[in-house]
Design brief:
Two copies of one chain form a homodimer.
Chain A lengths: L18 E5 H18 L2 E2 L9 H9 L5 E3 L2 H9 L4 E7 L3 H10 L4 E6 L2 H14 L3 E6 L13 H11 L4 E7 L11 H24 L6 E4 L5 H7 L4 E2 L29 E12 L2 E4 L14 E2 L6 E3 L6 E4 L12 E5 L3 H5 L4 E6 L7 E7 L8
Parallel strand pairs in A: 1-16, 2-9, 3-4, 4-5, 5-6, 6-7, 7-8, 8-9
Antiparallel strand pairs in A: 1-10, 10-11, 10-15, 11-14, 12-15, 13-14, 16-17
Helix pairs in contact in A: 3-4, 4-5, 6-7
């Protein structure tokens, strides 16, 4: 773990770079907005901790009414349970006896759930749970259009649920019906069409479950791009959005029904960088390349420097094109960059530097939280 | 820091996934090949530790004749010096009093060099060195075509060298003339043309230095894609290749003069992944997405599974298209993936799992080295 780039009480200008910055005011408004949405809609919310990898943030979500959190990896679940989170769903398949033994151990200390998409998995999880004499809640993941994990909707999924229900140490919890690739479809119509198919897949599976005398207590899914659509279906009852806490540049490329940018949530996550070279008038080189700002979802946005465009990232450098910039930053100036994709960006940093009053002259470091599950990949 | 996914003595099949694997046999042959090249050519070699971020690997390079290593960040230099490396060049600009104070402190314990591309930097580094009463060696970085950091070649660079030479705590070491964007030009002719311009830029600067009575002791640059060309120029005398230790999929897309793939070095770095879902015949989902295999340089290669193609990476998943695969892997099987780009891949992992005899039935974990400077970004 690297030393923290800042200490509470420092001014923003004193933070060493590159650093991962949280605009605490915007972040808290984002948490509040999603919590209020779920409360009004009457659905449970189980935010995705794969985005933030932090028990501190998870606890703030739970304090606002979340039933718990989900994550993708057993190693993330370990960090979250160790950090005091009492209800964790690994919204993913877990394969291998070593990993399942670790997962089962967590069930002594928290309510643990996991997904399956193969009959063999049911026996494997039962064995791990039996060895620890714990109960594990299991969701059947169905492929709702993402063509990744998940069994086909309908009879095959229901059969899997029946196998779970017959096991002594397992409880059939419901269906994992998350549509990942729908999240960044740019128009509302596209997202609606994708989620309509997901809803159909869920309904088809519910009908097959009923034939077996089974019921899915939980229909889980939905991300920041589509959660209103799943909620509106009346079928989903547990939402798993992650990115809403930070809101990244890629989600800002989504469009609402009226064609304007998706702006329900505010950009609350930034990478602070320093201009380290200004040797040519048309460019500024910043000390933030793709080792701190991954480019899987495109380029970061330059925050509040009109005309400056980030591009040509290499491992440790990014190049700001300032040819259209009336007032380019000078060597040594600090700039804020909005990550294209918050999840993998967070995973590259050891610390969140929380700023209160960002954008005001009194901006100060209020908190320095570890990204406790940074690198937790297995 | 995450727990290690393996322990010495384990079989490859026992390594938890995803894990960063080093084929120790191929890796050592790569080290030997580059060391032998430099010995025969009579040039110094200062391998780039930004690739491996490991004092263990740096020490093995030094043991084979490297004069020291280079890195890109002060925080990397700190880890390397703490790990016993006696000569470290930060082959990059360092901006800010905090960072420079840390750099100067290292000069009590190691020979430290750094680059500049601005007159202000000379005064800033002198102040930091004076405060510690140490000597810092300074290279003038010239822009040899990469349009990133670096002053224009010629008189401006020579003036900067003169400013360095006049400072009490600084020594003018030479020119940093690395051409990053030339490394992955696919044909030898393209790479030769780019480096010819770099050589011209160096010669022009040397002529201007001579007018001031200065000489560049070191002409530094060259990466894994072009090091033979810089060496052949007779102008460069210190090589900075990094990727040769591991050889990634992107470098394997380079072509030699005869049009065949660049194969001087062997793939020695892999991500070991597990097939976590096989719910559809046309695909296998592995537990390695872009949080462990960044995609800035394209997709990883699937190692020795004919017909399997890695694609559609998301945060924690990769999808193998096995439609053209005569013998697709089964759920639970482990697969090796060759990273597209070794540097940012290494930076996502906490541990190197070193395997002796990879590809043989007796493959065993021999070493588990920390990626000690993982995340060292400032």
């Amino acid at each position: 773990m690297q030393p923290a780039p800042a200490a509470p009480g420092q001014a923003l200008a004193e933070v060493d770079t590159p650093a991962l910055i949280v605009d605490l005011d915007a972040y808290e408004r984002n948490l509040d907005r999603m919590a209020e949405f779920a409360r009004v809609a009457g659905v449970r919310i189980r935010p995705h901790a794969k985005t933030h990898k932090s028990p501190v943030i998870a606890a703030q979500q739970v304090a606002r009414g979340a039933v718990g959190v989900c994550c993708q990896k057993v190693s993330e679940a370990e960090v979250l349970v160790r950090g005091g989170i009492a209800d964790v769903l690994v919204s993913n398949e877990v394969v291998g006896a070593t990993k399942l033994a670790r997962l089962a151990k967590l069930a002594h200390r928290a309510r643990i759930s996991v997904c399956v998409d193969a009959p063999e998995a049911v026996a494997e999880i039962e064995a791990a749970a039996a060895a620890e004499n714990v109960r594990i809640n299991v969701l059947v993941e169905i492929d709702v259009g993402g063509r990744r994990c998940g069994v086909p909707a309908g009879a095959e999924a229901a059969r899997l649920a029946g196998m779970i229900a017959n096991r002594k140490h397992l409880a059939f919890e419901g269906l994992q019906a998350y549509h990942g690739s729908a999240q960044h479809l740019r128009t509302l119509d596209e997202r609606r069409a994708a989620i309509a198919k997901a809803v159909e897949a869920v309904r088809e599976t519910q009908a097959e479950l009923a034939k077996l005398g089974l019921e899915a207590r939980t229909i889980a899914g939905a991300g920041t791009g589509t959660y209103e659509i799943e909620t509106g279906s009346g079928v989903y009852n547990e939402l798993q959005p992650g990115s809403y806490v930070f809101m990244d540049a890629d989600y800002a490329r989504n469009r609402k029904g009226d064609g304007t940018p998706f702006d329900t949530f505010e950009h609350a996550l930034f990478v602070l960088a320093t201009v380290m070279s200004a040797s040519a008038p048309e460019r500024r080189v910043v000390d933030a390349g793709h080792k701190v700002l991954p480019v899987d979802s495109g380029m970061p946005l330059v925050w509040q420097i009109p005309g400056a465009i980030y591009g040509r990232p290499s491992d440790e450098h990014g190049v700001l094109d300032v040819t259209a910039c009336p007032k380019p930053p000078a060597r040594g100036d600090k700039v804020l960059l909005v990550p294209a994709h918050c999840d993998p960006t967070v995973n590259l940093h050891d610390w969140y530097v929380g700023i209160r009053g960002l954008g005001t002259p009194s901006a100060k470091v209020e908190s320095v939280w570890p990204v406790a599950a940074r690198g937790a990949a297995f």
